[in-house]
Amino acid sequence: MNYAHGFHAGNFADVFKHVLLTRALVYLLKKPAALRFIDTHAGAGAYDLDDDAGQRSPEWRDGIARLLKAKPPADVAELLKPYLEAVGPFDPDTGRPISYPGSPAIAQILLRADDKIALCEANPREYERLMEALGRDRRLRISSADGYLSLNAYLPPVERRGLVLIDPPYEQPDEAARVESALGKALAKWPRGVFMAWRPIKSVLEDARFLNTIRALGAPNVLGLELDVGPVAPGPHSPTPLRRIGLLIVNPPYGLAEEARTLTPYLTKLLTRGGQGEFVVDWVTAPL
Ligand SMILES: C[S@@+](CC[C@H](N)C(=O)[O-])C[C@H]1O[C@@H](n2cnc3c(N)ncnc32)[C@H](O)[C@@H]1O
Predict the structure, then answer these.
(1) Domains, the chain, ranges and CATH?
(2) What is the pLDDT of residues 22-53, one digit of tens each?
(3) Helices (H) and strands (E) in the chain — how many of each?
């Protein structure tokens, strides 16, 4: 288990995933009833972009730094507000935030006193960092167990409201199959739950197979988002850098698909290199 998210924190993929995660949480928080956020692959929680990983692999410069220096139109700015508030203060010259929040820190900032946050991080070093980054918080339950196995035990949450983020590192060749299987089991236990699953798209053919397997689960209401930032130069930690990513949102809160249609083109244009960006916002299975 070598993956350390610090090398990628705040990159284009993080920005896209975390903006959409924030919007989904904002919708869920509109209702007063308590909710639970479950993050099966939590990472280190928050990232110092000035540390070794951030310095050696400055992917954040083509991600969060671009967004922090941008002047979006008013409708987009309004939608980005909660995410940018979670990112917090930054250096206006470099666009480097003091600390970049991972998904656990975003949830910790947005959620309310009665909400719950369940995090799994199986890498002992990242687990230690996660514990340290989030500090004492009675809403938190942090586990070092396997995220897929724990998910099965966590569902359905007692609150019957909330969001599950499935965001593995894709170090293993069978990771997509593990996500498919996890989603299948999770939806059988909690069909109306909101699930977000992130993936890298390296082969169009393999991705088409992945999407077909998701369709075969038989669950309606699966929104598919994709973002391609065009060719990316190799870096010390990415000999074959990622350019296309996908996000599945199962049972997106009402209104989120429409927001994705506003945010995705804007973020594609902002984060793309050489004007070769592309995006997809479409239903993988029919909306309810
Ligand atoms: C992409 S990072 C997570 C980033 C985080 N969700 C965010 O958005 O800030 C994936 C994390 O999953 C951890 N991991 C890998 N396999 C795991 C497993 N089976 N269960 C739980 N965590 C795992 C890795 O150590 C890594 O920190």
Answers:
(1) 5-283 (3.40.50.150)
(2) 999 999 999 999 999 999 999 999 999 988 77
(3) 10, 12
